[in-house]
Design brief:
globular, single chain, mainly alpha, Four Helix Bundle (Hemerythrin (Met), subunit A), 4 strands, two-stranded antiparallel ribbon, 68% helix
Length: 229
């Protein structure tokens, strides 16, 4: 409606706070880590496509690190408009879909898990992940996005940044490990936990830095196993 009115009047809509004059969207430090997480996920997809799976897993971990801190940075931006807050929520969910729903499926697929049961698990995993993100977008729409979350209902999709790199490491340390069964079963269980109503306490304070340190160590181990031998 507003666009029609603008065309009729010949006036151009002026960019709001956080917008650029030459393109749509909001670009400020409140969403910078979300953009970096998404970029890392896309690079991970490219690596998976050409079967550089170690680097693909590294990208998954990096996306997880970015996602861990993006909420803190967003809440520190006190001058955000309501539109910027809503945009951040939507952008975060879309980024999470690519990083923690699509990328793990592609990694598993490129590992050779391509049987009928694996395909069914992929479908269920993606459905559960998207359903979870969409459901919580609806909940956030009725509350202040600046209010910190104290606990999660169900397993957050970002847990994929821990679960699947761990499985990858196990498969590297134990070559005889039946990776197809392991990945399929864990992915199916993860999908169930995505949409479950179990309560999981959200990490706070120093826990963020502990997880970040573990993630950096995990990346170092992955790269050493790939190139240090």
């Amino acid at each position: 409606m507003k666009e029609k009115e603008e065309r009729k009047s010949g006036e151009r809509r002026q960019p709001e706070h956080g917008e650029l004059s030459f393109c749509i969207g909001y670009y400020n430090r409140s969403v910078i880590l979300t953009y970096l997480s998404l970029a890392s996920a896309v690079i991970g997809i490219c690596f998976a496509y050409v079967t550089y799976l170690t680097w693909s897993v590294v990208c998954l971990i990096i996306s997880g690190i970015c996602d861990m801190f993006d909420g803190k940075i967003a809440r520190s931006c006190k001058d955000r408009s309501d539109k910027e807050k809503d945009f951040g929520v939507q952008l975060d969910s879309l980024s999470d879909t690519v990083a923690f729903v699509v990328l793990p499926v592609l990694i598993s697929l490129e590992m050779g898990h391509q049987g009928p049961f694996s395909i069914v698990v992929f479908v269920l995993y993606v459905l559960a992940g998207v359903c979870r993100l969409g459901y919580f977008n609806v909940l956030v729409a009725h509350q202040d996005p600046d209010t910190p979350v104290k606990s999660y209902t169900g397993l957050p999709v970002t847990s994929a940044a821990v679960i699947f790199p761990a499985l990858w490491l196990i498969s590297r340390f134990i070559p005889e490990c039946p990776t197809t069964i392991m990945f399929d079963c864990v992915m199916l269980l993860t999908a169930i936990l995505f949409v479950s109503r179990i309560k999981i306490r959200k990490p706070r304070g120093i826990a963020y830095w502990i997880f970040s340190a573990i993630a950096v160590i995990g990346i170092a181990v992955l790269l050493f196993m790939q190139y240090g031998r």
